[in-house]
Amino acid sequence: MCDLEFIFYLRSRLTCLVKDRTFKSKRRETLYMIFSKPVTYAIRSLLFLSIQERKEYLLGTTIASSIGIPSPYLVKILGTLTSAGILQAVRGPGGGFQMSMRPEEVSLKAIVELFDGVHLTTQCLLGLGKCDESNSCPVHDRWKESRDHIDAFLSGTTIETLRTLLRDNPDKCFNGVLDRSLISV
């Protein structure tokens, strides 16, 4: 298997691992999407909530329209984040969602595990069940190095890390989806 074939195979296995079996119309989007839409939407919404200057409750519809995510879908994601204790929700007038944890306490790994239930650092790339040093698959050694890098990245990257990157690079606001005037970090 040549390197290009391996990359496509790896991408397809990662996609299956995160339960995203949809086909995208744009080839570039397909190649680079590793995590499910709920994970990416959760990250975007947490980032949006973390950059709000006034720590007030925001409606799910407000968050959705601000970052370009379908409202009914996002409200379910926000509910999951609330159940996990990452967000706080209040019903009624003046209610909505706000961060209950500090942005530096929320790692990308926690979000991935919350929504996808996948542990990229423990699963066999080929889906062969138990795969460790004593019982390894043909690509175990090669995948182990990449897997360790992914785990380190997810564990070491928090919403605060992303918030800082956004502050330092305001022109990269969700590819134009997030209005730069909303950034007040």
Q: Say how many strands there are.
A: 2
Strand content: under 5%
Average pLDDT: 76
Number of separate helices: 8
State Rg. 18 Å
The major beta sheet can be summarized as: 2 strands, antiparallel
Helix content: 40-55%
Distance between the termini: 47 Å
The largest sheet has its strands arranged as 1-2
Uncertain regions spanning at least 5 consecutive residues: 1-32, 181-185
Order of helices and strands: HHHHHEEHHH
Give me the secondary-structure category. Answer: mainly alpha
Q: Judging from the principal axes of the Cα atoms, what is the shape? A: elongated
Describe the protein's architecture and organization:
By secondary structure, this protein is mostly helical. Helix content is 50%, strand content 4%. The protein has helices spanning 3-17, 27-32, 37-50, 60-67, 71-83, 108-116, 140-156, 159-168; strands at residues 87-90, 96-99. The protein has a two-stranded antiparallel sheet. β1 (87-90) and β2 form a beta hairpin. The longest helix has 17 residues, at 140-156. The radius of gyration is 18 Å and the shape is elongated. The model is unreliable at 1-32 and 181-185 (pLDDT under 50).
